[in-house]
Amino acid sequence: MNGRPAETAPTMPASLPTRLILLAWCLLSIGASLHEGEYSAPGLSCVVAGLLLVGAVVVAGRAPRRPTRAELAVAAAVALVSALAHPADRLMHTGGGDLVAVQAGAAVTVAVALVSLWWRHDNVAWLAGAGLALATGCLVIAVVPDPKIDVWYLLQQSGSGLLSGDDMYRQHWAHSHGLQAVYPYLPMSTVLLAPFRWIAGDVRAGLLLASVGTSALLRRYAPAAPVALSLLVLVHPHWAFLVDQSWTEPLLLFLLCTAVVATDRGRPVLAVVALAAALAAKQHVVLLLPLFAWWPAFGWRRTLAAAALAAVAVLPWIVAGPADFWHDAVHANLALGVIPRALCVPSFLLRHGITVGFWFPLLGLLAAYAACLRAPRTAAGLALGSALVLWTVDATNKQSFFNHYTLPLGLLVLALTAASRQSEAHT
Predict the structure, then answer these.
(1) What angle do CA 72, 76, 80 make, to 5 degrees?
(2) What would the pLDDT profile of 13-36 be if each residue is shown by its tens digit?
(3) What are phi and psi of 181, to 5 degrees?
(4) pLDDT digits (tens, 9 = 90+) for 267-324
(5) What is the tally of structural domains in the chain?
(6) In a domain, 138, yes or no
(7) Residue 356 falls within a domain, yes or no?
(8) 56 neighbors 23 (Cβ within 8 angstroms)
(9) Does a structural domain hold residue 282?
(10) Which runs of consecutive H residues, i.e. helices, occur in 61-121?
(11) Selection from 26, 58, 20, 48 nearest residue 385 by Cα
């Protein structure tokens, strides 16, 4: 990500990058939540349109500034309208009063985030919004004790298996309706969430705390920014559904935000450890290594250190069963085919009789990397470039759903928070 001299920068109003990023956030949050993140023509249209907007901002090379309260009010209003008009329901595995209570909690949380833009006491406003989100997430876990998704079964049972020395790549997932003998992640997903399985009985408690922790981290990172900015990671459409389904993206977002914030605040060891943990938790985080290496504040030496530390963390499972590890963590993911219900461009093409291979996401990834060369070499530029890379992969990959898009969604908030931090430093 290479910054350019001011005299060569393209002419763009100072407010436009921030507004385009918030518009992209709105488009992605709507598109990914329609039909619970499965394919729909309007949903994919929103996803692609938002991606093009972020790509345009990155290519323009102009840094965003701190969003105004009026700009954030638009994003919060979009989330509130979605919570009222299109609440999570179809796949929540609960109903009646329990479902209404969850939906009401989610809607009130968004309403508080919106109202916080006019509160005088920011700390109280954040505590109110984060507290309501935490209560809503706890309610989700309580009323949906079994979300009936294979991710939950494998995280729960692999967490329990750690206590008895079981190899997650050799375990079978009892009662799972999807994956039954495959662990598709890297080991750190289970290692970091297992304590919540042991203590609270449910890994979703750890993922809920990761979401609230991310909001707290962003709030502390840029305390002069409007509270609603840090609350966006807790109020995007169908956030309660993300908690319900136990997807690991909240954990990845927390680790990546920690890596960026720690580097920007002069804590390189914490930054390296956080990035290493993310790398050892899910495979596609490796796609962000070129960006971290190109970011001057992190650099290639720390990038190599993070990659080496991640390799050391994963090594015990490779040594214990190389064939099992390869089958689950590598082959099972590469062997996935395009399916019509996925929210991605290949699924759209498949519906029209066109099949694409690995060259398609590869071309998209190369285009995203090329665009990132023009991004400012700042924390905001790194976060925005990371969002562009992961969003591009999601849109061009063979199978992408709601949870995949929540990671770039959160990284957009990180980019605006970093821009707000930079604005504070200049005032």
Answers:
(1) 165
(2) 778 999 999 999 999 999 999 998
(3) -140, 25
(4) 999 999 999 999 999 999 999 999 999 999 999 999 999 999 999 999 999 999 999 9
(5) 1
(6) yes
(7) yes
(8) no
(9) yes
(10) 69-85, 96-115
(11) 58
Which pLDDT score, from 0 to 100, does residue 6 have?
A: 38
Q: Alpha-carbon distance 415 to 65, whole Å?
A: 10
First to last CA, the chain: 25
Ramachandran sector of residue 158 (left: φ over 0; alpha: ψ -120 to 50; beta: rest): alpha
Task: Identify the domain containing residue 307 by its residue range.
Answer: 6-425
Biggest alpha carbon–alpha carbon distance for the chain: 62
CB contact set of 195 (below 8 Å; sequence gap of 6+): 206
Burial letters 330-351, b for 16+ CB under 10 A, else e: eeeeeeeebeeebbbbbbbebe
What is the DSSP code (8-state) at residue 427? -
Q: Is 250 helix (H, G, I), strand (E, B) or coil?
A: helix
pLDDT digits (tens, 9 = 90+) for 38-88: 999 999 999 999 999 999 999 999 989 999 999 999 999 999 999 999 998
Q: What is the DSSP string of 35-76?
A: GGGS--HHHHHHHHHHHHHHHHHHHHTPPP-PPPHHHHHHHH
- Radius of gyration of the chain from Cα atoms? 20
The answer for residues whose C-beta is within 8 angstroms of residue 255's C-beta and 6 or more apart is 274, 275, 277, 278, 281
Q: Which residues, including other chains, have CB under 8 Å from residue 416's CB and lie 6 or more apart? A: 18, 21, 22, 64, 66, 67, 225, 229, 380
Q: Quote the CA–CA distance of 295 and 264 in Å, as a whole number.
A: 11
- Residue 136 CA, distance from chain mean position: 19
Decide if pLDDT at 129 tops 50.
yes
Q: C-alpha distances in angstroms, 40 versus 32, 33, 340, 341, 388?
A: 10, 10, 10, 8, 22
Contact 236, 29 (CB under 8 A): yes
Residue 1 inside a domain? The answer is: no
For residues 406 and 251, the answer to whether their CB atoms sit within 8 Å is no
DSSP structure string for 343-374: SSHHHHHHHTT----THHHHHHHHHHHHHHTT
Residue type, 272: V
Amino acid at 189: S
Kindly tell me if the per-residue pLDDT of 94 is higher than 80.
Answer: yes
What b/e readout covers 59-73, taking b as 16+ CB neighbours within 10 angstroms?
bbbbbbbbbeeebbb
Residue 182 is predicted with a pLDDT of: 96
